[in-house]
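Morning. Coffee machine broken again, so started the prediction first thing and wrote up yesterday's gels while waiting. Chain of 292 residues, entered below exactly as on the submission form.
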Amino acid sequence: MGNNYELYKVFYWAAKTGSLTQAAKALFLTQPSVSHAIKQLEESFGVSLFYRNSKGVELTQEGMVLYSYIEQSQILITLAEEKMAALKNLDSGELRIGGSDSLFKHYVLPYLEQFHKRHPGVKLHLNHGTTPEVITFLKEGRIDLGVVRMPIVDPQLQVTESFQLQDCFVAGARYAELKNTVLTIDALLQHPIILFSRNSRARMTITEIFHNYGYSIKPEIEVGSVDLLIEFARRGLGISYVTREFVSKELEEGSLFEVAIDIPLPPSHVGLLTMRNMPLSSAAHAFIGLVK
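Came back before lunch.
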């Protein structure tokens, strides 16, 4: 039966309009090519599909059976075309992003707001997790893109570096005497240190930096969220190691201040992760364009 789609289209319009002339018009064909197409279909099925009458053509019994199927397929194809156009124009579809709570809250949120304003029809799904979890979500196809701290070295992943973060030590009013001094690592470690509990990138980094200077950093308090790191420092329970960008509000209003230490703390970069060999959804593509 081969390439019958075009023939079915001709058949559909001839049956729908009851006229070969009208079918030709609707499909921008000549009338002889419409007649020819119908003749081909009739020959391939070995039945006649139309009677000719004074007004044009009408379906035979067999023609009606064929029409009942072809009509459904035409409706489906039209729906498919509309759906594809909607996805392309971002009237529908979904955007699935993975990342940590803190990156969502302090970094992704403003972009998501802009994206949502531009494409209110696109559903947003946020999957929270640590960097290794986000990478797993991506590989399992549960998200379209991840927002994580660099460096990520994985041949399956495409990384777009987007912006820089700076981690630092902060404390609240209780430690006011440390305000305008620069502490040695020794002096810093005289105080209770509050760190993020899970094997987060920030935690691994600071452990490694101190290790390189011959110190091990043992937190007095470990917490499971950046919000708690901030809250505990504000209440004077110790000195927290946090991302400066995540405490900009507290530093500005003065409920926290940065505790300076005499070794450099390298900045870290945040990257957008996608699967290297997978086509991006229009929504993910648009979002990355927005962030860039």
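The chain has a mean pLDDT of 90. Going to sketch it on the whiteboard this afternoon.
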